Structures are given as structure tokens and as C-alpha cells.
């Protein structure tokens, strides 16, 4: 590159000031600075002229020299009535003469002029060289900078190779992409040197004299989704095997489009591409083969960073959308446009090798047994400190330039993830990025997120899951899915209005009116993190799709108690995810959404406030009543789950978001889809006969999740609520580890039922027992007792990663509340039974009062324990029988 001249001439005199001629644009750029070379990238000159004319008129009004270089065959970009120094130049005379003439002119005008250039793209045509265009800019831009001018340049977007674009972007001070969509002009700054604002790199819409940062992800992704990204195009300068295949595919696709004829070997090429970038799994391949044509495969490939496969999560999302769009064109209008990128699995493999982790990773399983978790921890730390290849880092930066300051999420998408039989729910990490700050800061945060997800492949949970599923010898590489977070900007926060999970088969039947085959939603306001992770003291809305208004609660007081009160958002000021009170979020979003779609007013609270003269009160309760009853949302979600489930020929589990516009219109984004590992259909079983009251150990009226079950229970692990409630948080974590040792002791403990206070599997010991799923995976039944905190709602585990693990391993879940009339627990029988804990774990004296390991044969001579649970009736018994 040519060396940039010094920033200021030695004899710099009076400070200069400049303007774009549009105050709103000056505000967006945080001012126009002396020396700014502004490059506009667009598809049409009308958009360029929109910005050029006020710049020119302002320059003349301020008495500055306005210099216009005219050298292209397009119409003039400066209006005829604007007085300017107009210079007609001929690029055909050759590069040296052309640029020398330009320098002579610039030198004659000296310091502080305003320059406008014709379209630079025409120079590359005249000179037949992108390299020479880059060289022209490398000489011109620094000279203008030294003269403290402001210059406007324009380029055709996606027209030039990196030889020109990279030099131009590196040398200029301001780079702006301009779009014309539906007769409205949008622009997105890509680079603005030495300036920053919280909205600087966002897509902006023009609205009269105002430029507004575009708040809606649906609008941004619609405009940006179809824009070609030249940095993603395959390198035809030095093509390899990968590139050659796609060049061949592009030529094939163009031929089909032009002639309408499909050559015989096109099918062979399409199948080869599926196996190159999508999947090699036979079951997944069948779906991909049915729903991905050559054009769709090329669209996916053009948004890949690196090579390899895109991974299970990406495949699931893309297949789900393809299923819907093929079923009915209407889904093209109901689905939010996605503009995701895919970081190929080969990037992970290269990262592992180049950061000296490959041999260590191999040694984890070299002995053929359970992984060495201590060694995995060391690898994890090494990954977190790893470096990326320079070309990958450059592509990360360009991807961030594309997204601007829109929040993004980096999601794990391993080769085995979300496949039939292997959900990997919550085993690998995904990271939300508020994506605020300077380009350098945003790049570092992105790379940290990628490192973090790569490191999660070495977590105890992920490795234990693979080991117990017999997957340690399977090829498991980590691809990544990068998505624009669906949602809107609301003041200092960003979030979707609706997010959640949906199942095409409803395993949660608390009322006989519910038809399991129509599916169920677990729905939240804000980010979907509260729908897939357990959060104590807060609730989600569970919607049986055939009876959406049906609730377990009997009155509004219970409804208010069991509604969502905490909202997960992205805090744009703190640049991180945050959990906020619903009231705070609504007040921040005032005027930007119709809150009545999602919330209902508490009439009792309104009456009390009125009676006491209180005016500034918050009456809203998140019930989703209008959304469920008055809009087409339920019908759409029901149809989505039905269509995808039928295509999969298997129940499915999706993650989704939804955002409402005007007139209750909405867009849905299916962000993830995978087979739902539910073992079968519900069945009703015959009630047990003649269970004597003295033989009843436990009785529950629900909630119950899973298959109906009638069979023996040989062992009960009972955590005494009173003792546990008096423990400190660290003791509770230690107790969970002890339970893990019990369940995985290898001492032939079979048909285990866990009974304990609060939530099993919580990450918060204050709310229950923080046992990991791997610690309790050998249990047959788990029971949660509402004895530690006020009230257990039927949404306790449904839709969370913990619940997916229960379903996948066919573990029955039930909860019971001692204060409910139809529930019962015979604590006297459990407390008086012999404790076998010390026989299994000799050094367990500390835990004798808190954990009881009970052999049900010890409860009554010649009797043993039996479980009888009817999911349809929502009734369950643990009793003794001989």
C-alpha cells in the first residue's frame, strides 16, 4: 500500500468546518471532518444524488471551492444550476496522465475545497483493472486528506474485487452503503473514522429531513437479506477443490435459469453439494434432498465463512423454513426474512489444530472409556486463549460490517446437534451479543463468543452426554450459526416481543380438553432465554394450541401470581444481556408497541389505585390474552408445527420469535427446529385397586410430564425439605453432588425415584436442588415438592433444556403440593425408614439427616414400592403392594 501522508500540513492555519448540507446526516456521522473522503456504495445514482446535492449547495453557500471531476458517461451528478469548477477528464489517456491532471487541479485549489467525483466504477472499466482503481484511490485519498478537503466518491456496490474495495475501505475515512427499497432510501455506515455513537453503524431510514435508525429486525433483514456480499464470493483467482465445485454449480444454475433445461448431471452435483455443506447423516439427508434445490444450496454456500458443514442447528432452521415455504407461498409473507451466516466446521478444526489442542483432544478418549474431565478442563482453557487465522478474522469483521450495530446471536451448530436421537439440549453454549461499541470492540467480543462456544465442546456436561449416548467415536465438529436477533429497538433496550419454544406434540396434558396432537407453546415476552432455561419465582405462558385460553389457574389472582414478571433484554448501554422488571421495560418502550396485545389490566389494582388517588401506577399483567384470542398467531403456530412435524414424520421441537406491527399483523421467525424425542403417545392406564391409606406414600394431582407409567420403584432418594431448607447455598450444591454419586454409584440401584423440595436441575440452590442432568440421568421418576418456595406452577420444566433431557431419557416428572387437597406425602413413613445411604457412600455421615436412601422393601415387610401415574388424568401414586 502507498504510505499515507501526514495528517496535517505543516502550515495549517485557521481550523476548517464542513457540513454534508443535511444536519441530520451530520448528526449521524458525528460531524463532517476536514480530510474526510466519503465513499458511497449504491446500486443507482438517484440515491447518490440525494446526498450530493445538499452537500454541493452548502459548499457554495459557505464560499468554499466546489470541484467536480467529470469522467464517466452517466448523467452529471451535480445539478446544472449549482456553480462549480467542472473538469472534464479522459481516463482513456492512461492512468499516469489522468491522475497527474487530477493532482494538478487539486494542488491549484489548495486547502479546504469540496470535491465530487463521478462514479469510480467507470474507471475500472476504462482501465480494465480493479487493481488500478485501487491504486488511484491510494494516491488520491491521502492527498485530499492532507489538503483538509471533503470529497464525495461513489461506487457500484458488489461490482469490484477485493483488490479495489479493500484498498478503498482502508484508505477512506467514511464508507456508506445506500439502498433504495420500495422508493425509500436507506443507508448504513460501514466505516466512520474517529467517531462513534450508539446508533452510528445501524441501518438508517430517510424520513423527510430526519434520518432514523431502523428499529425493526424484520425491516433490516428484508432490505439486507438479498444484498450480495462480495467478500463472501468464492476466490476464483486461486480456486481449490471446494471453490471449483461451487464455480461449477454456479455455471450450472445460470444455465438452468437461462435455458430452462436441467442437464443430467445436475442432480449428481446437487447431492454432492448437500454432502459438502449440509449433512452426511442419512436421516437428515432425506429431508435436505427433498427440500433443498440447487439455488437454495448456493444461497447457503454464499453466506458461509470457511468451509465444511454448517451443522445441525443451521440445518434444522433452514429445513423448517424450506418446508413451510414449499407448503404454501403465504409463508413468504408471514416469516421474517433471515440473513444468517454459517461458520463452517472446518474453521473449528483449523482453530483446534493451530492452537495446539488436537493431540490433547484426541487423548481424551484414546483409552476408550469415560472422558478425562480434568484434561478436558485444561483444553477448554487453552481454547479460550486461542487465535484465529488472519483470513477468518477478516471475514468476521466484514460480517460485523454487514450487521452494523444490530444485535446478533452466535449459536452452536455442531455436526451431531439437533439430529434424530441427539438433541444436545443446553449442552453447548450460544451467546447473545448486543453488538455495541467500535468496530474493534465488536470484533473482539465476537471472537470471544466463538472461543466460548468452541470451549463448550470440552464441558463436563457435553462430554458426559456424548459418552452416555455412545457418541464419543462419532465425528463431532463445531460449526456456528450467526443470526440477527429478531426484535426491535426500544430506547436503550432491544428484544423480540414474543419468543418461546413449541412442540408439535404436547406432553403436558393437565386437562382432558387438551388434544396432545395439536401441540403446545411455552411463550415469554422478550428474549427466549426465559423460555429455555429455568428461572425461579417467575413463570411463562403455556399454550395448548387446541385450547389456547385454557389455564391451570382458576381466578385472576392466581393468574397474576403465575405470570412472567422479569423480562430478558439486550441492554444497549451496558452492552450485555439484562433481566428487568416488566414495568421498567414497558415504560422504556412506551409508544413503540401496543402493550394491550400482550398484557391485561388488573382491574382490582386499578380500583384500589383510584380509591387512594394514586395516578402513576402500573396495571399491566402479562397474560397474552388478546394475542391468543384476537389475532391469527395461534392458528399460524399450530399450522407451522403441523406442517413441519408431518414433513419430519416425527414430533418436532422449535424455537421461535414473533413481532407485531400495525393492525395486529405479525411476523414469525423460526430460529431453530429439531426432532422432539418423545417416546410415544399418551395412554390411559387402569387405576390400581384397593390401595389402603396406610400403604400410600405419595399422591399428586399434577403437574405430570411424560408417559403414563405403572411399575416398580425399588429405591427412593428423599431429600428432607426441612433440613434442606436450613442449609447454606454451598451445602446445597455439595448435597447435589452427593446425589449424583448415589445415582451413578454402579451399585445396582435400579428403578430410582427422586423426591425433593423445589426444582430439580435448577442452577439456583435457593430454588431447589442444583443437580445436573448427568447426575440424575439414571432415575426413573423425579418428584418436586412445593415446600421451599411459594407455589409451583405447571410450567416448572416444560420447554427448558432440562425438560428436553428428561423427555429424551424417558424420565417421568411430577410435582406435588402438600397444601393441595388432592396431594399427599407420607413424611412419617419416609423419615422412619432405614437409611441405606452409608452402605452405598461410606463417608456420608454429614448427610444422614438431609438425604435418605430408602429401599422400598424396608417400608413394610413383604411389600415393595409401585408407581402409578396417569398423564391424561394428571394423577399419580407411589404406594406399597405385595
Question: What is the element layout, followed by pairings?
Answer:
Elements lengths: L22 H7 L7 E6 L2 H17 L4 E5 L14 E4 L6 H15 L4 E6 L1 H7 L2 H17 L3 E7 L5 H10 L2 E8 L2 E9 L11 E4 L2 E4 L3 H9 L15 H19 L6 H13 L3 H10 L2 H8 L2 E2 L6 H16 L3 H4 L6 E3 L1 H10 L3 H6 L9 H12 L5 H14 L4 E7 L15 E4 L5 H18 L3 H9 L9 E7 L3 E3 L2 E3 L2 E6 L16 E6 L3 H4 L8 E4 L11 H6 L4 E6 L4 E6 H7 L10 E3 L1 H9 L8 E3 L2 H6 L2 H16 L3 E9 L5 E10 L20 E5 L3 E2 L3 E5 L1 E5 L1 H5 L3 H15 L8 E6 L1 E2 L7 E2 L3 H4 L2 E7 L15 H8 L3 E5 L7 E2 L1 H6 L4 H4 L10 E5 L8 E7 L4 E7 L1
Parallel strand pairs: 1-5, 1-6, 2-3, 2-4, 4-5, 10-11, 29-30, 30-33, 31-32, 33-34
Antiparallel strand pairs: 6-7, 7-8, 8-9, 11-14, 12-13, 12-14, 15-16, 16-20, 17-18, 17-24, 18-19, 20-21, 22-23, 24-25, 26-35, 26-38, 27-34, 28-37, 29-36, 37-38
Helix pairs in contact: 3-5, 4-5, 5-6, 8-9, 8-11, 10-12, 12-25, 16-18, 17-18
Please give a handful of descriptors for the protein shown.
single chain; alpha/beta; six-stranded mixed beta sheet; 31 helices
Residue windows where pLDDT falls under 50 for at least 5 positions: 1-11, 789-799
Instruction: Give the C-alpha Rg.
Output: 32 Å
Number of helices: 31
User: Largest sheet, described in full?
Assistant: 9 strands, mixed
Measured distance between first and last alpha carbons: 88 Å
Helical content (DSSP H or I, runs of 4+): 25-40%
CA-based shape: elongated
Q: What percentage of the residues does DSSP assign to strands (E)?
A: 15-25%
Per DSSP E runs of 2 or more residues, the count of β-strands stands at 38
Q: Spatial order of the strands in the main sheet?
A: 3-2-4-5-1-6-7-8-9
Give the class from helix and strand content and strand pairing: alpha/beta
Return the average pLDDT rounded to an integer: 86
Amino acid at each position: 500500500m502507498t504510505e499515507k501522508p501526514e495528517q496535517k500540513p505543516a502550515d495549517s492555519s485557521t481550523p476548517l468546518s464542513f457540513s454534508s448540507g443535511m444536519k441530520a446526516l451530520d448528526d449521524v456521522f458525528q460531524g463532517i471532518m476536514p480530510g474526510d473522503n466519503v465513499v458511497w456504495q449504491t446500486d443507482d445514482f438517484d440515491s447518490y444524488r440525494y446526498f450530493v446535492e445538499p452537500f454541493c449547495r452548502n459548499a457554495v453557500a459557505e464560499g468554499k471551492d466546489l470541484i467536480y471531476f467529470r469522467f464517466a458517461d452517466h448523467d452529471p451528478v451535480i445539478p446544472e444550476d449549482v456553480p462549480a469548477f467542472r473538469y472534464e477528464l479522459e481516463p482513456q489517456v492512461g492512468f499516469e496522465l489522468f491522475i497527474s491532471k487530477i493532482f494538478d487541479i487539486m494542488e491549484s485549489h489548495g486547502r479546504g475545497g469540496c470535491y465530487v467525483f463521478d462514479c469510480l466504477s467507470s474507471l475500472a472499466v476504462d482501465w480494465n483493472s480493479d487493481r488500478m482503481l485501487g491504486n488511484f484511490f491510494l494516491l488520491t485519498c491521502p492527498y485530499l486528506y492532507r489538503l483538509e478537503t471533503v470529497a464525495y466518491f461513489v461506487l457500484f456496490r458488489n461490482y469490484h474485487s477485493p483488490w479495489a474495495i479493500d484498498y478503498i475501505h482502508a484508505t477512506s475515512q467514511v464508507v456508506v452503503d445506500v439502498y433504495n427499497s420500495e422508493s425509500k432510501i436507506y443507508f448504513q455506515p460501514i466505516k466512520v473514522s474517529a467517531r462513534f455513537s450508539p446508533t452510528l453503524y445501524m441501518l438508517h431510514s430517510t424520513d423527510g429531513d430526519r434520518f432514523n435508525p431502523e428499529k425493526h429486525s424484520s425491516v433490516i433483514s428484508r432490505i439486507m437479506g438479498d444484498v450480495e456480499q462480495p467478500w463472501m464470493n468464492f476466490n476464483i483467482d486461486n480456486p481449490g477443490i471446494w471453490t471449483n465445485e461451487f464455480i461449477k454449480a454456479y455455471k450450472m444454475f445460470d444455465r438452468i435459469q437461462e435455458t430452462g433445461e436441467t442437464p443430467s448431471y445436475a442432480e449428481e452435483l446437487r447431492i454432492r453439494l448437500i454432502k459438502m455443506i449440509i449433512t452426511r447423516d442419512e436421516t437428515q439427508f432425506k429431508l435436505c434432498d427433498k427440500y433443498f434445490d440447487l439455488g437454495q444450496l448456493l444461497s447457503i454456500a454464499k453466506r458461509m465463512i470457511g468451509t465444511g458443514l454448517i451443522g445441525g442447528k443451521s440445518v434444522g432452521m433452514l429445513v423448517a423454513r424450506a418446508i413451510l415455504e414449499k407448503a404454501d407461498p403465504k409463508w413468504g409473507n408471514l416469516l421474517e426474512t433471515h440473513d444468517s451466516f454459517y461458520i463452517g466446521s472446518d474453521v473449528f478444526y483449523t482453530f483446534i489444530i493451530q492452537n495446539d489442542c488436537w493431540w490433547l483432544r484426541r487423548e481424551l478418549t484414546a483409552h476408550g472409556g469415560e472422558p478425562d474431565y480434568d484434561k478436558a478442563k485444561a483444553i477448554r482453557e487453552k481454547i479460550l486463549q486461542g487465535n484465529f487465522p488472519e483470513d477468518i478474522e477478516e471475514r468476521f469483521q466484514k460480517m460485523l460490517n454487514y450487521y452494523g450495530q444490530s444485535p446478533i446471536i452466535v449459536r452452536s451448530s455442531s455436526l451431531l446437534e439437533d439430529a434424530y436421537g441427539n438433541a444436545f439440549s443446553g449442552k453447548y453454549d450460544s451467546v447473545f451479543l448486543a453488538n455495541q461499541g467500535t468496530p474493534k470492540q465488536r470484533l473482539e467480543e465476537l471472537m470471544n463468543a466463538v472461543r466460548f462456544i468452541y470451549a463448550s465442546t470440552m464441558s463436563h456436561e457435553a462430554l458426559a452426554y456424548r459418552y452416555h449416548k455412545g457418541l464419543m467415536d462419532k465425528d463431532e465438529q463445531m460449526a456456528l450459526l450467526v443470526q440477527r436477533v429478531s426484535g426491535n429497538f426500544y430506547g436503550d433496550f432491544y428484544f423480540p416481543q414474543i419468543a418461546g419454544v413449541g412442540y408439535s406434540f404436547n406432553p403436558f396434558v393437565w386437562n382432558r380438553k387438551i388434544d396432545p396432537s395439536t401441540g403446545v407453546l411455552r411463550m415469554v415476552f422478550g428474549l427466549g432465554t426465559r423460555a429455555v432455561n429455568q428461572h425461579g419465582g417467575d413463570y411463562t405462558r403455556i399454550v395448548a394450541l387446541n385450547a389456547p385460553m385454557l389455564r391451570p389457574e382458576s381466578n385472576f389472582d392466581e393468574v397474576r401470581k403465575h405470570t412472567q414478571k422479569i423480562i430478558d433484554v439486550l441492554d444497549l448501554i451496558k452492552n450485555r444481556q439484562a433481566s428487568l422488571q416488566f414495568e421498567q421495560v414497558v415504560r422504556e418502550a412506551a409508544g413503540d408497541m401496543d402493550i394491550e396485545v400482550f398484557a391485561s389490566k388488573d382491574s382490582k389494582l386499578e380500583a384500589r389505585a383510584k380509591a387512594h388517588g394514586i395516578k402513576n401506577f402500573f396495571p399491566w399483567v402479562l397474560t397474552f390474552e388478546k394475542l391468543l384470542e384476537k389475532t391469527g398467531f395461534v392458528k399460524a403456530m399450530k399450522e407451522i408445527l403441523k406442517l413441519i412435524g408431518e414433513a419430519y414424520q416425527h414430533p418436532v421441537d422449535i424455537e421461535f420469535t414473533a413481532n407485531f406491527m400495525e393492525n395486529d399483523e405479525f411476523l414469525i421467525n423460526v430460529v431453530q427446529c429439531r426432532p422432539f424425542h418423545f417416546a410415544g403417545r399418551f395412554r390411559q392406564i387402569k387405576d390400581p385397586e384397593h390401595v389402603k391409606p396406610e400403604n400410600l406414600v405419595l399422591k399428586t394431582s399434577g403437574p405430570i410430564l411424560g408417559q403414563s407409567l405403572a411399575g416398580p420403584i425399588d429405591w427412593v432418594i428423599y431429600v428432607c425439605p426441612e433440613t434442606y431448607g436450613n442449609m447454606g447455598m454451598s451445602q446445597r450444591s455439595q448435597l447435589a453432588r452427593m446425589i449424583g454419586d448415589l445415582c451413578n454409584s454402579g451399585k445396582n440401584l435400579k428403578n430410582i425415584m427422586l423426591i425433593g423440595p423445589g426444582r430439580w436441575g435448577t442452577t439456583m440452590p435457593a430454588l431447589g436442588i442444583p443437580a445436573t442432568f448427568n447426575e440424575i440421568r439414571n432415575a426413573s421418576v423425579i418428584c418436586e415438592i412445593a415446600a421451599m418456595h411459594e407455589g409451583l406452577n405447571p410450567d416448572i420444566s416444560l420447554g427448558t433444556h432440562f425438560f428436553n433431557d428428561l423427555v429424551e431419557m424417558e424420565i417421568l416428572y411430577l410435582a406435588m403440593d402438600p397444601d393441595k387437597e388432592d396431594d399427599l406425602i407420607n413424611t412419617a413413613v419416609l423419615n422412619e425408614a432405614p437409611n441405606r445411604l452409608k452402605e452405598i457412600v461410606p463417608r456420608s455421615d454429614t448427610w444422614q439427616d438431609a438425604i435418605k436412601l430408602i429401599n422400598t422393601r424396608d417400608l413394610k415387610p413383604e411389600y415393595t414400592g409401585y408407581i402409578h401415574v396417569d398423564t391424561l388424568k394428571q394423577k399419580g401414586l407411589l404406594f406399597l403392594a405385595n
